[in-house]
Design goal:
The protein has 321 residues and is α+β, with helices and mostly antiparallel strands. It contains 9 helices and 18 strands.
Length: 321
Amino acid sequence: MAIEVRNVNKSFGTTRVLDDVSIDVASGSLTALLGPSGGGKSTLLRVIAGLETPDTGTVVISGADATHLPPQRRNVGFVFQHYAAFKHMTVFRNVAFGLEIRKRPKDEIRSRVTDLLKLVHLESFADRYPAQLSGGQRQRMALARALAVEPQVLLLDEPFGALDAQVRKELRTWLRRLHDEVHVTTVFVTHDQEEAIEVADTIVVLADGQVKQVGSPADVYDHPADPFVMRFLGPVTELDGHLVRPHDIDLGAGPVDGGVPATVTRVVRLGFEIRVELLIGEQEAWAQVTRGTVEDLDLHPGQTVHVRPSPAARPLAVSTP
């Protein structure tokens, strides 16, 4: 394992932020720490980086106990949400900074930085300053700077959080491709479920300072450990006392085995998807269907339909208070 976190606890004052957290990060993997704000994601990342010291527990990086090592001795690269760029330095000098302070030969620095700028598609921006770059370009520069010193582990704290939605989508696709090229063990923090599912090999779901579930994106999405994970990892609706994914609900015009009657209250077209809002007794629910279903059933407000989970659905019982 590249990273082994064992029984880590961390409090700030009387607030417990990490509660007996243990995770393993495989060498060469891309792991997402996913969860709501205040769940402990960034604190765990900072403990791995050495920017925070755990109250109890251990952190092992590449087989060596790093629990009390300072950040500069852990051989990790860290990328913050807001880039932390040196404004008075060019893109080239920003990327070269870590190599310069390590007194690497100038020819080696020039070669390494040139290669990295090509890797992150910024070779034509080497002489520009951070203020002359877009947000996405500045984040790519920050990633190149972190990779310059050839870290054993790359840590990213909500790297795309300050960017608009379209740029986020472009950069997360780019990050996955970059990782597949460089194969450096990477851990990134995000509260964006879609981002974690699209990019990561493994997802660690954190909430209230505890690990709720660890698994592949498919495992965590299709086999959530509890209602919290199911709700957090994608859209859900409630049907007959169970949580169901809206795309796993079948609608029919007449009674069906296992179905319940529902009243259509609203039909909302969202591009290629259509959201059908329903009322089942006094319980609100909704289904995600195709245009074909809407046309075949002539769905409209006030209509009575019959709904049930599809055969592929994995309903999860709603927890009682």
